[in-house]
Design brief:
The complex is a heterodimer of chains A (about 675) and B (about 160).
Chain A (H helix, E strand, L loop, with lengths): L1 H10 L3 E5 L5 E3 L5 H7 L11 H4 L1 H15 L11 E4 L5 E11 L2 E7 L2 H57 L5 H38 L9 H19 L2 E4 L15 H18 L5 E9 L2 E7 L31 H11 L3 E6 L5 E8 L32 E5 L3 H13 L3 E5 L2 H10 L4 E5 L7 H12 L7 E6 L4 H10 L3 E4 L4 H9 L2 H9 L11 H7 L4 H28 L2 H17 L3 H15 L3 H26 L26
Parallel strand pairs in A: 6-7, 11-12, 11-13, 13-14, 14-15
Antiparallel strand pairs in A: 1-2, 1-5, 3-4, 4-5, 7-8, 8-10, 9-10
Helix pairs in contact in A: 5-6, 5-9, 5-10, 7-8, 8-9, 11-12, 17-18, 17-20, 18-19, 19-20
Chain B lengths: L1 E9 L5 H10 L12 E10 L2 E10 L18 E7 L3 H18 L4 E6 L11 H9 L4 E3 L8 H13 L1
Parallel strand pairs in B: 1-3, 1-4, 4-5, 5-6
Antiparallel strand pairs in B: 2-3
Classes of the chains: A alpha/beta (about 675), B alpha/beta (about 160).
């Protein structure tokens, strides 16, 4: 029977070698061709083959084989594949197996050529795919950073340019200046188009890569990811002699689901842990932990290093290419990546120096929905189509809270909002915005998405929480450069009603404001009188006895005095001075009546009444409405003052010049 | 002639096979060909007045598909621990391997080689990490199987350490 087995194995291509001790073997059957190709010189029928000397792999395997021959009852003794190179240069894969046949210690060698090639092919494909995946992950990080730079750093100044040029175009400027302004606007539009094209390309590309590499977990567990990061980086910490520990205060039984994507969340942890390791001396500890903050879940990494760099403010540490002078870091992308990624998920990130030594780097993310639900927006929001021309709607005075950390945008936008009669409260960052929201009522809250300390998303969520059970719903508008469909979805889930894409134009902003429930309500409750003079220029001239020059002088005086009167009214409201308020409103009512501006007259009268009744809060709103009407009147009057009398074609009777007083010569 | 066994250890695709080929045959190929199993090469080197035959065990990089057999380290006089400078994860893998070797065969000489120095602009590792490792007493060299930079030096340094 053993002979049969020997024959069968030989037929199958095995080289069967009888072990004679000292690493030497004698063939017990005909050797296959590959054996001769490899070791022809060593094969001599009268001498054993010193295979251990020839093949270091066989020498190594022999130790296992001898163990098997001594105690053959155990597991099969078989090697993995190794490669031997023939004198011709051909590489021959081999496998070895220890056998006991007829009480002989047999080493069976086999060349699994075709099977090996198949195995190589499969592994090559798998490892190529693995390398591609790693490359892809790196590319995604780079692209995200670049995308963010384009969105934020290029769009931000463009927003300022748009609003500044829109503001300029509303001023009284020369025709030549207007031409220059048109050129500037045109160039701005071109730049915006180019930015958008780049953005669209990137967004599509990024989305495709993300979808291709998606791991399916859209609400990973914050604690579980922390554990994975610890496992991943544990050896690195050990090598440096730094202890990596989980905080003892963590509730291990709870679920910690967050709005995030697992692989990038892991990368955030890795970046923070590597940062901590870089600054923590050997023998000290880095602690990782999570905390429940209700609607948000917070993760932190505490180190026992030298603390935060003295040359950087905490918020600067997360800036692009930011490195402290004592930094051992690289290009300054790691923490920047953490910031933009966390902010894209609607969270925030920061760092503080710890009281005794070291620093804490933390980030907080929204708890994944289904655990503490978010309030759906009442009104269906639409993302802004920046650059599309629209009809400018008539503005209604609204109470607006406007938060943006960019001073130029704040200044210009506020100027324009106030000019349209809105009441504007400004906040420089998210925390200020939330504080302002809690201290007064607003019709619209316009929030920049990316602000230091507290992002627009966080403010929106906090506002929605504050509104719970109050039957109120403030119209929240996000102002952001992140306007992909995914971004808009995230912003809406944070509680925003509308997303205003940056760079935005005034007409976009006005359209959004006019779509707010408060504006719609005002429109229904008190339909505004038509913004027009009840008389035309001919009638006005007739009112002043046909003296055009006098009319123009009156207009100039009105234009000159009205701002002072309005300022006086505003001051009276601030001082809570009812008499001055009523008196100034009365004077203004008379002035606007001369020009037949019925809406402005009515607003002045309302204001006068409010002054008499000492209703200063309502007076502020009424003043805003009055300013709106006055602004329209001023615009009309400027037009009249700068032109010869208009002659409406629709009413031929008005074409007739009003009769002049006899005896007076026109000058 | 004195014979010394050297094992090449490191994650997959860090360039272990390329380093051996560059060292033994002065050949380099840009095409990544994964190693399945073990390849053994030999090269004689002269260290001072001693000639040594280095037996180089090019062992597949461990991953989800192939697990390392620690018996391959039997009789090894030293090893070259290889990482890919462009892939941070391979550094972490190298640290794990170093620990495991210490557990299995004890503290034998090794040289830590960070390969692909020709792609230095794409490196994910920074000099701070190298400095940290140097502080731990590790011998660290940058290499490029493509340009040959640091290849001879790495093997020579290891051979010197092995000969004590």
């Amino acid at each position: 029977m053993p002979d049969v087995l020997e024959n069968a194995l030989t037929e199958m291509g095995f080289a069967l070698l009888d072990y004679r001790g000292n690493g030497e073997f004698l063939p017990i059957a005909k050797l296959p061709a590959w054996f001769s190709e490899l070791w022809a010189g060593a094969v001599n029928s009268s001498h054993p083959i010193p295979l251990s000397q020839i093949s270091p792999f066989v020498e190594n395997f022999l130790l296992d084989a001898e163990g098997f021959w001594k105690s053959p009852g155990g597991a099969v003794c078989q090697s993995e594949t190794w490669i031997e190179k023939a004198p011709s240069g051909r590489e021959i894969p081999l496998q070895a197996r220890a056998l006991l046949l007829n009480e002989k210690r047999i080493l069976a060698l086999f060349s699994p050529d075709s099977q090996f090639r198949e195995q190589v092919k499969v592994l090559q494909t798998a490892r190529d795919a693995s390398l591609d995946h790693e490359r892809l992950a790196r590319e995604i990080q780079k692209k995200e950073i670049l995308l963010h730079c384009i969105v934020h750093d290029l769009s931000q100044p463009l927003s300022v340019m748009h609003v500044a040029m829109d503001s300029l175009s509303e001023e009284s400027i020369s025709e030549r200046s207007r031409q220059f302004l048109t050129l500037g606007k045109h160039a701005g539009n071109q730049q915006e188009t180019m930015i958008r094209q780049i953005l669209q390309t990137f967004s599509a590309d990024l989305q495709a890569t993300l979808e291709a590499g998606a791991e399916g977990n859209s609400s990973p567990d914050l604690l579980e990811c922390a554990r994975k990061a610890m496992t991943l980086l544990g050896p690195t910490f050990e090598t440096k002699g730094v202890r990596l520990a989980a905080s003892s205060n963590v509730d291990l039984e709870s679920k910690w689901p967050v709005v995030a994507e697992e692989s990038r969340l892991l990368r955030i942890y890795s970046n923070l842990l590597e940062n901590a390791l870089r600054y923590t001396p050997a023998g000290r500890r880095v602690t990782i932990g999570v905390e429940d903050e209700g609607e948000f879940l917070k993760a932190f990494v505490d180190d026992q290093g030298p603390g935060l760099p003295s040359d950087l403010r905490p918020e600067q540490i997360f800036g692009l290419f930011m490195k402290g002078k004592q930094s051992g870091g690289k290009a300054g992308l790691g923490l920047y990546f953490c910031r933009i990624t966390v902010e894209r998920w609607g969270g925030s990130i920061g760092c503080v120096a710890l009281p005794e030594r070291g620093s804490r780097f933390w980030f907080r993310l929204p708890r994944a929905s289904g655990h503490l639900g978010t309030i759906p927006p009442r009104a269906e929001a639409t993302s802004s189509a920046v650059g599309t021309k629209r009809n400018l709607p008539a503005a209604r005075p609204l109470r607006i809270l406007f938060a943006d950390d960019h001073e130029d945008i704040r200044t210009l936008t506020t100027h324009q909002l106030k000019r349209r009669g809105h009441h504007v409260v400004i906040a420089n960052d998210g925390k200020q915005a939330l504080k302002a929201f809690r201290s007064a009522a607003f019709d619209v809250v316009l929030l920049d998405q990316e602000m230091p300390g507290m992002t627009g998303d966080e403010v929106a969520r906090a506002i929605r929480i504050a509104e719970q059970g109050k039957r109120t719903h403030t119209f929240l508008v996000a102002s952001t450069g992140n306007t992909t469909s995914e971004d808009v979805r995230c912003l809406k889930s944070a509680g925003f009603d509308h997303v205003l894409g940056k760079p935005f134009r005034l007409e976009d902003l006005n359209l959004v404001l006019s779509s707010s429930p408060a504006a719609q309500r005002v429109s229904k409750e008190s339909p505004a009188p038509a913004t027009r003079l009840t008389t035309d220029f001919a009638e006005l001239t007739a009112r002043v006895g046909g003296d055009e020059k006098l009319l123009k002088r009156m207009i100039r005086m009105f234009l000159k005095d009205t701002p002072k009167r309005l300022a006086g009214i505003a001051a009276a409201i601030r001082r809570n001075d009812p008499e001055s308020l009523a008196s100034l409103a009365h004077a203004l009512k008379g002035a606007v009546s001369i020009f037949g501006a019925e809406a402005a007259r009515k607003r002045s009268q309302d204001l006068q009444e409010l002054g008499r009744n000492s209703e200063f809060s309502a007076a502020s709103q009424a003043l805003a409405s009055l300013k709106e009407e006055i602004a329209k009147l001023q615009a009309n009057l400027r037009g009249y003052a700068n032109q010869t009398p208009a002659r409406p074609k629709s009413n031929p009777s008005m074409r007739q010049r009003p009769p002049r007083k006899r005896g007076k010569r026109r000058r | 002639m004195l014979q010394k066994k050297i094992c090449m250890l490191g994650s997959f695709a860090v360039g272990k096979t390329s380093l051996v080929r560059r060292f033994v045959e002065s050949i380099y190929s840009d095409v990544y060909q994964t190693t399945v199993g073990v390849k053994i090469d030999k090269k004689n080197v002269k260290l001072g007045d001693k000639e040594v035959s280095l037996v180089l065990w090019d062992i597949y990089g461990e991953d989800d598909y192939q697990k390392m057999r620690w018996t391959y380290l039997r009789g090894a006089s030293g090893y070259l621990l290889v990482a890919d400078g462009t892939r941070k994860a391979t550094l972490e893998k190298a640290f794990t391997l170093e620990q495991k070797v210490r557990e299995v065969v004890g503290a034998i000489p090794f040289v830590f080689v960070i390969n692909k120095s020709d792609l230095i602009r794409d490196w994910e590792l920074d000099s701070a990490i190298e400095s940290q490792m140097a502080v731990q007493g590790w011998n660290i060299l940058r290499s490029s199987a493509k340009t040959g930079e640091g290849v001879e030096e790495s093997f020579s340094l290891l051979a010197q350490k092995m000969l004590g």
